[in-house]
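From the pipeline queue, job 12 of 40. The input is one protein chain; the requested action is below.

Action: predict structure.
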Amino acid sequence: MLNFLRIFCVSLLLNLLAPHPSMAADDALFTINVDVANVRNGPSRSNRVVTTASAGQVFYALGRNADSDWLRVSADRNTSPDTWIFASLGALSIDIERLPIVAQSPPPSTIAATATPTPIATTARPAVAAPAAASYYPANAPAGLPSLSTRARQIYAQGLAYGRNAQMFMIAGDSNSEHPQFFDRVSLGWYGLASYPNLPNILARWGAGVRRQDANSSVSVRGGLSAAEMVLPFNHPSCASGESRFTCELRLSNASVVFIQLGTGDKFAWREFENNMRSMINHAIAYNVLPVLVTKADSIEEYQGGAPSGYINAVIRKLAADYQLPLLDFYLATSTLPTVPNPDLPHRPFTQHGLLDEWGYYFHLSDQAKSLRVLMTLLTLESIAR
């Protein structure tokens, strides 16, 4: 009996120490331990951000650069994309010196620049030729810019009369709204002065809002945020007890305009999206702040959450009509952005309609879409201030 127990215990211990059946024994895993980490298309901060990762997200580490400060990573053990993360943004399951030193592959844009765009069969939105510049500002005003109703102008005027800051706007948004993906592009001068000579004046007019975004001071912008999280009580040193992220930022910023650009993070909570949006709209109007509702370029709630096609954008358009609020229809605007094909994966292009391919899903914005949204935001602010 004693020998049987010994054998049983040894067998159990060996089983516990054995690798998980879905994970090879030699897998090197990299776990993100910061709120948001940029995933780039090369081992340098000057390389383009292709997506972001959240705390707790795990990648397979495929290699390192010569200085061992960047890791080449993949979300799938069976693929080897040229995607890199700064090594200090997470924890590696093995000694970094055990990883091979790997070189950066040639960027796919050098292939796509001369390729003929291929329409995607799963979407009716058109494909157009890719512009040469990463910053895409059309010669004519883009589709989807909002018009201001009489009620919207009254809300804005009343806010100024109550002391809201005429130079301050705020953003309620997710990773696509974070400063590196949004107004940092303004700081870099990525806007078309030739086609839009008034943009510097708009930036000066709304300088307080741009500076607040630049300083990452907002509590209502963070990667992965959903409308559901925006209305929950939020524990933060700058926020009062019981305040949500949204109401806290309304108070802290003293903004006169708020752009509500959410929905991607609500892919599994799409049934509650309308009620959460109504809560934010009602709070903004109660604070005498003009809400601008913004549709999103993706339909991730359909592909991952089982929602009807275009559900969240349909809700956003409905709410804009119900409340007579400005609607920045970004989905409509990105319909004219190019599809950039991937010669190796014809059915999974590098970008389609302003969205990046991320292992078969599309929800983070391409460089052109980011530039387009900056432009549309500034043109909307200009129309509000007239």
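Job complete. The domain at 27-107 is CATH 2.30.30.40 (SH3 type barrels.).
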